[in-house]
Amino acid sequence: MSNFWKDKRVIVTGGAGFLGRVVVKELQDKGCKHIIVPRSAEFDLRKSTAIRKLYTQARPDMVIHLAAVVGGIGANRENPGKFFYDNLMMGVELIEQARQMNIPKVVAIGTICAYPKFCPVPFKEETIWDGYPEETNAPYGLAKKMLLVQSQAYRQQYGFNSIYLLPVNLYGPGDNFSLQSSHVIPALIRKCVEAKKRGNKTITVWGTGRATREFLYVDDAARGIILAAEEYNSSEPVNLGAGFEISIKDLVQLIVKLSRFKGEIVWDKLKPDGQPRRSLDTSRAYKEFGFKAKVSFEAGLKKTIAWYERNALPLENAN
Predict the structure, then answer these.
(1) Could you tell me which residues come within 8 angstroms of residue 73 by beta carbon, excluding any fewer than 6 positions away?
(2) For the segment 250-293, what is each residue's pLDDT rounded down to a tens digit?
């Protein structure tokens, strides 16, 4: 194990969240002893004064910015203004205050939603400006995309070291399983497990099933972020993905099989599919810092389903 992290002081925004907890554990496993996880009750990361207070207290050598206001298609449609403002202000102020206070490096986590709605598959980083994002999550995607602009502009003018990573949709144990705000995998797992417990004969799934997605297991994502933090020092964006594409229809059938739900699938075709296709070219991450996903999709899904079955609330308390 290298000594890269031994004396580093690292702020992990969103460090108590789904991805953040795994990143913090990865840092601890690498020997990092000074990890600061700001909580929103004390630090409103949309406010420059709060960020300056955090940086003054923590004296970080690096900031890994994972905090985000996120959700699935439904949550994005209901909160476009909030998703735009909160994500934009957090990222812009964290980077600007880091520049002013001479913090050596910021790792900014973008989103696959920044890519154009109609983008050649697999998505290559150089095509990120070739069109407007898919409408249902465009405010969120564009807010996060501005951190790429800021990273490149600040490196050009100030020589400031920040990097911008584009992880594909994540999944894994500890994910958000709320039916109001979760992404597709946890929502499907919850629907199947609860339907099985209740003895329901059907589950309803949004869209037509024709859209495709790529998914990255959360442990792989954390490992990729830490590798980039250690080794990558450029403002050219980098995809983090698993390098495969699966239709929503095939995804549903796989989760139905693995969760042992025996009922029927009802497709609500009045609901949107979201982006038509989504899959990443992951060659830049491998070339620049040796990242390649290790956890197979089926193995990751089995772990995620098992975790949810152990940790799900009783049906009468679920919401």
Answers:
(1) 136, 137, 206, 271, 272, 274
(2) 999 999 999 999 999 999 998 888 888 889 999 999 999 999 99
- Which tokens go with 303? 């772990």
Share of the chain above pLDDT 90, in %: 86
Contacts of 227 (CB under 8 A, 6+ apart): 289, 290, 291
Q: Rounded CA gap, 29 and 54, in Å?
A: 24
Phi and psi based region of residue 122 (left: phi greater than 0; alpha: psi -120 to 50; beta: remaining): beta
Please identify every residue annotated as catalytic: 140
What is the rounded distance in angstroms from the CA atom of residue 246 to the CA atom of residue 123?
A: 14
Paired tokens of 173: 């144990």
- Look at the pTM and tell me if it is higher than 0.90: yes
CB–CB of 288/232 below 8 Å? yes
- What DSSP string runs through 208-263? -S--EE-EEEHHHHHHHHHHHHHH---SS-EEE--S--EEHHHHHHHHHHHHT--S
**Residues 218/172, Cβ–Cβ less than 8 Å:** yes
SS3 34: strand
CA nearest neighbour of 302 among 208, 147, 117, 172: 172
Span 83-129, pLDDT tens digits? 999 999 999 999 999 999 999 999 999 999 999 999 999 999 999 99
Cα–Cα nearest to 296, from 247, 227, 225, 246: 246
CA-based torsion, 236, 240, 244, 246: positive or negative? negative
Q: Which strands form 238-240's sheet, in the order they lie side by side? A: 34-36, 9-13, 62-65, 105-109, 162-167, 238-240
Residues 6+ apart with CB under 8 A from 99: 154, 158, 160
Residue 135, helix vs strand vs coil:
helix
Neighbours of 27 (CB within 10 A): 24
Residue with token string 């790792």: 107
